[in-house]
Amino acid sequence: MNWKQTVSSDNDYIFRYRIDEANNKEGGKCNSRLDLVKKHLQSILDIVIPCSGDSEIRIDGFKLMNDRSLIHGLYDQDNESAASSGRKILESPLFREAMRESGGGERNGQGSSFRSIKNAALYEPTVEYIQRLLQGLLDLVELESHGKIVKVDAFRLKDLSQWVEESSCDPADMLGYLATRCNCNCVFCYNKGCPPSLALTNPSKSPDEEFREVQTRLKYFYPEKKKNLFTSLGSSFEAFIHPHFREVLQEVRKKSDKLIRITTNGSTLTEEMIDYLLGFNPLHLDVALHSSSTHRRQRLMHDKTPEIAIKSLPLLRKAGIPYNIVIVPWPDGSPEEMLDDMEKTIDYADENDAHLVEISLPGYSKYFSERELFDHDFTWEAIARKVKDIRYKYQVPIVIRPAMYEERLFCNQKNLPEVIGIVKGSPGSDSSLQPGDILTKIGSNVIHNRPQARTLLSILQKNEIESVAIEVLRKGRTLDLLLNLNKTSYPYSRDIDTHLGIIFMGTGLRGGYLESLEYLIEKKGAKNILFLTSILIKPLLEKVMLESPFFRGRAIDIKVAVPPNRFLGGNICMGDLLVVQDYIDYIKDYINSTDVKPDLVVIPSSPFNLSGWGRDLTGRVYMDIERETEVPVEILECQTIYD
Ligand code: SF4
After folding, report:
1. Mean pLDDT by 10 residues, the chain (643 residues)
2. Interatomic CA distance for residues 419 and 402, integer angstroms
3. I need a surface site. Which of 97, 236, 288, 558 has the fewest CB within 10 A?
4. Ligand 1 interacting residues, C-beta cut-off 6 A
């Protein structure tokens, strides 16, 4: 028997240690999660010397991944204040504009289910960290209570006020916790195609237990302080059918007067429900109507009472509740039938003053279907062409998601500040602005591209000014127009519209991203760069790089490449849905097939933007890409590009 096979016997001497505050390095308790990280790092650094290559590194501080503007000192005298304030630094031009909410958990009451660690790893990695720490400790020690060994198999968060952190406090999130079931069964429901390793979901609970969780979350929901318990969202079914929907809506409205935006399949939007909702304005609904035909809606969604959703449009208009219409043109029946139904549904939405129509191009993962369900290129192009042909017939703006697909297909000139729609009742609609106009000036600012136009318009939207002069190019002629910012009506709403009701073909690519890329390349002194993006962004990116003086005439080899989405498979082509393993696989394949090892890999941050903690959809941290491929990886800070 070797030492590894030896098992302890009752006769062994027992090395007993008390769990005592006095034994703590700092001689005090952990007062926050930050303290816990700090004390753990201090303990590790008492045992190991971190190295980079052959060099030893002295570590005296750390940053949390969800806020890189703060360095937390490891050995400050005044730990309390150092932990709470940190040192503010201007790290680089890539500095994050804003972080999404993070932090927090739920104290399990009697009969509470266990929560998903994967989900916590995505939204509050400290919980996963505690789990690993406890697992490690329990591998080495046994815990005692009054001289007896106690077996520990779970932990719970102790004082929830310690888990409250910065948050945008979107009231809709509270209703999102109720969206755990659906009364329809759409043939294309994306929930059926979720991989088991997705970090977004929590184990299912009873409606009453969900209600108890939301009640607790509401207790720690402080919109005026912009603080909240950490989120654990993920379900995207139908909130309206939850038995506690009305109670939660009432409580949410008591706590926040902000706009509540709810996505619904419309099946519960009876006259009575819409009357009830009127008491909770400002509201905005995204109605997944999919079809205005009772027969087709029944066929596609298995909605038992399709007429309720269809009839809800005039009722919403009458009640003054703005709504968007969502259509997934699913290739069911002939392509002609699908396109004809899409047009009729847009027609109906336009007739009933919808705020906007969103055409969501049909997608599915390999978990939804292993076999090809339809000709992807043919179907997407047919839908986009139809939308392009009919768009200007209607007053309601029609957008395609992902918008970049349409731009890639039809627009030779990328990033153009071209108006593709104007929300009825908006400042844009009152100004004789027309779809097809290209914005050339806003106020005295000359407009060069779409992101610039959007930024200026959203600044104006938040301002109290009464009017602004704009200049547009229409069929080769320059026109001067005036936007009256105060003369607005239904369905425009200052709460939901961000660009004065002017709709563009997606976000476009910000010039700032290219500057950030240049900064990263210079910082690393890289000469051979692999930039990983999506098939939708690649043409636009290559074009702006070609035009950039930074890349012209330089001894820099930059290759823009598209890793396939093996994780989700199917016809998924959005870069934001790539996961860490997709990047690792692609980089390894690239090195093997080209025999070239890049000296820098750059990846846009959008696949890791979910929680601010740099995690992908599976809860895995992006740093694993560099660890596994041994190629330096930099993240290019950017917002989710399509909208
Ligand atoms: S309405 Fe939405 S959640 Fe419900 S089955 Fe259809 S796609 Fe899925």
Report:
1. 50 71 54 81 84 84 86 68 38 27 35 83 88 85 85 88 91 94 95 83 85 93 94 86 98 97 98 97 97 98 98 98 98 95 98 98 95 96 98 97 91 90 93 94 94 92 89 96 92 90 86 86 93 90 82 84 96 93 98 96 93 90 94 88 49
2. 17
3. 97
4. 182, 184-186, 189, 191, 237-238, 265, 288, 301
Residue of 178, 182, 300, 368 best suited for mutating to test ligand 1, as the one with most atoms within 8 Å of CB: 182
Query: How many Å apart are CA 93 and CA 80, to the nearest integer?
Result: 30
CA angle (312 as vertex; 310, 315 as ends), nearest 5? 140
Architecture per CATH, 511-636:
3-Layer(aba) Sandwich (3.40)
**b/e map of 286-300 (b: 16 or more CB within 10 Å)?**
bbbbbbbbeebbbbb
Nearest residue (by CA) to ligand 1, atom 3, is 237
Whether 398 contacts 365, CB under 8 Å: no
| Domain spans, the chain | 9-161, 412-504, 511-636
Q: Which residue among 181, 235, 241, 265 is best mutated to probe the pocket of ligand 1, counting the most ligand atoms within 8 A of its Cβ? A: 265
CA of 510 to the centre of ligand 1 (A): 34
Ligand 1 pocket test, pick from 178, 180, 186 with the greatest ligand atom count within 8 Å of Cβ, gives 186
Q: What is the pTM of this model?
A: 0.86
User: How far is CA 15 from its chain centroid?
Assistant: 50
From the CA of 357, how far away is ligand 1's center (Å)? 18
Centroid of ligand 1 to alpha carbon of 198 (angstroms) = 18
